[in-house]
Amino acid sequence: MKTQPAISLPQGVRDILPEEAKSIVRIEAQILSVFERYGFKMVLTPLLEYVDVLSLGMGENLKDKVLKFIDPSTGKVIAIRPDITPQIARVAATRMRDYPLPLKLCYNESVIRCHESRDGKSSEVRQAGAEYISSASSPEADAEMITMAIVALKETGLRAFKVDIGDVGFLRAVINGLGLETADQKRVKDAIAIKDSSSLEAILEGFSKKVNKDDKKLLLNLTAFYGEDEVIKKAAAVTKNKTALGSLENLRQVIDIIGKNGFKDCITVDLGEVRGFDYYTGVIFEGFAAGVGKAILGGGRYDNLMERYGSPLAATGFAFNVENIIAALGRNPAP
Amino acid sequence: MTTRNWQDTLTIAMPKGRMLKEAVNLFKAAGVDFSELLKDDRKLIFENVAEGLRFMVIRAQDVPTYVEYGAADLGIAGRDVLIEQAKDLYEPLDLGLGICRMVVAEPKELGAGDNPSRWTHIRVATKYPNITTRHFMEKGIQVEIIKLYGSIELAPLLGLSERIVDLVQTGETLRKNGLVEVEDVMDISSKLVCNRASLKTKPGRVRELVDRLSAAVRDAGKGRG
């Protein structure tokens, strides 16, 4: 008797059948046409990378999620890409080194991220994203990326969404200004991350070296500095830290430009957002749609990354999670 | 009169059981009455149209899941459940309710000459396998977990495990079963939790509710003196 193997798929991946494939391809085409209109050129990057090369440009939170294997011919460890941004950084810093700046690149690829838990979360994520690489950072570049994200979302027919903007440069300046040990900094950052003012207060009280009153007030307020862009003014009023004030001014300019572009209604501000704290260097942003619990896009400024690939340039970028956009469209059908 | 559309409604997941009554009282102090949910325990959803709030009653362990996926915008969950499940949520307010401690306990006879700093390999019954594993691993102690769903304090009596990790409020249950505390794991209280997307897409509504509740929590703290 012949035994047939179970015809199944590995955890976290799936087939996409014609009906759904059609809507995914349509939305990706809409997004890519907006990227093109803004002058972004598509690159195709390989599925595989050397782990040590990829690691130069990977956020800490991704490092544990990389699917790796050993190349039998060389003995080197190879990864299936968990993120496109480090690949773009590598390409821009090496093969495209002599292209004129700014370098505006976009992509539309799948990435693989392994999850520890077996809760049915996808390992394969389809990303459509863009990266803006220039000689120096500017509020204009940040604003252009966020504006382009909003225009693309509108193009897909999505209505009830917000792009939430924060600034890890501001947060880093505030937290570094406290003069705490690394472990204590992390405790402060982790409490702010979940907007847990109760724990944050207890943590700040518990330090042997007293945190001064103004800093304490600012930190506790950070857990509630979300919503309208007035929070930028409020934060500026309670900090004297020059670097932090510089970041707030930059953020104000970014929001000002987005407002002039006519999209003030589409944005919110959250000064207490710490997503990608170790990876990003300035303005960060994430998109959310009503009725969908997960982000539909995410990105920010990463001015340290290009340097690790040998080309000290400033960069900002983001990627859409196309499947989450489709979930959002299902919840909020276009009128 | 302002009319609210459905996207403006906040859905709040409440834990079934002992905590529900305390939560009702706290919300009442914040000016939101949903005590109807207490009158009829088959009723699981209650809508306060004027406030634009919808309450639903679910199992305490399910609250973080509902909120993480956005099926509820906000919820009330114990720190024990939150840390055990490690979901991606905001935790904007400690409600000061359901205060208790998570401890390691063992039979009195074992406890007499026992020194936790000498443990190398122990067997522990608990409802909290993740917290328990992490607690002992950080100390370099190998721990064999017996996962139970209730009546944890019976495990040592019946020889299922020598020790337990569980919640204690007054310590009465431990005493009755001949157990003593040997180690603190963490302090527990209930927290208001919030879905990330809800906070970002309805920031005004979320903040208003958090502010009202935090004023009620402060007043309750004063009342207790």
Give the biggest sheet of chain A: 9 strands, mixed
The beta-strand count of chain A equals 12
User: How many DSSP H or I helices of chain B?
Assistant: 10
Q: Tell me which CATH architecture of chain A applies here.
A: 2-Layer Sandwich
Name the CATH superfamily classification of the largest domain in chain B. Answer: Periplasmic binding protein-like II
Read across the widest sheet of chain A, the strand sequence of neighbours is 1-5-6-12-11-10-7-9-8
Distance from first to last alpha carbon of chain B = 39 Å
Number of H/I helices of chain A: 13
Question: Structural class of chain B, please?
Answer: alpha/beta
Give a short summary of the structure.
Helix content of chain A is 41%, strand content 20%.
Structure description:
The complex is a heterodimer of chains A (335) and B (225). With 335 residues, chain A is an alpha+beta fold. Chain A has one domain: 2-Layer Sandwich (BirA Bifunctional Protein, domain 2), CATH 3.30.930. Chain A contains 13 helices and twelve strands. Chain A has helices at residues 18-37, 51-55, 60-63, 85-93, 139-155, 168-176, 182-193, 197-206, 213-222, 230-237, 242-260, 305-308, 322-331, and strands at residues 41-42, 48-50, 67-70, 77-80, 103-112, 124-134, 161-167, 226-227, 267-270, 283-289, 297-301, 314-321. A nine-stranded mixed beta sheet of chain A has the order 1-5-6-12-11-10-7-9-8, sandwiched between helices. A three-stranded antiparallel beta sheet of chain A has the order 2-4-3. The termini of chain A are far apart. By secondary structure, chain B is an alpha/beta fold. Chain B has two domains: 6-98 and 189-224, 3-Layer(aba) Sandwich (D-Maltodextrin-Binding Protein, domain 2); 100-188, D-Maltodextrin-Binding Protein, domain 2, CATH 3.40.190.10. Chain B has helices spanning 18-29, 36-39, 63-68, 79-85, 108-112, 129-137, 154-157, 172-176, 196-201, 203-224; strands spanning 10-15, 45-48, 53-58, 74-78, 90-94, 100-107, 121-126, 142-147, 163-168, 179-188, 190-194. Chain B has a six-stranded mixed beta sheet with strand order 2-3-1-4-11-5. The longest helix of chain B is centred in the C-terminal third of the chain and has 22 residues, at 203-224. Chain B is elongated, with a radius of gyration of 20 Å. Classes of the chains: A alpha+beta (335), B alpha/beta (225). At the A-B interface, β7, α8, β8 and β10 of A face β5, α9 and α10 of B.
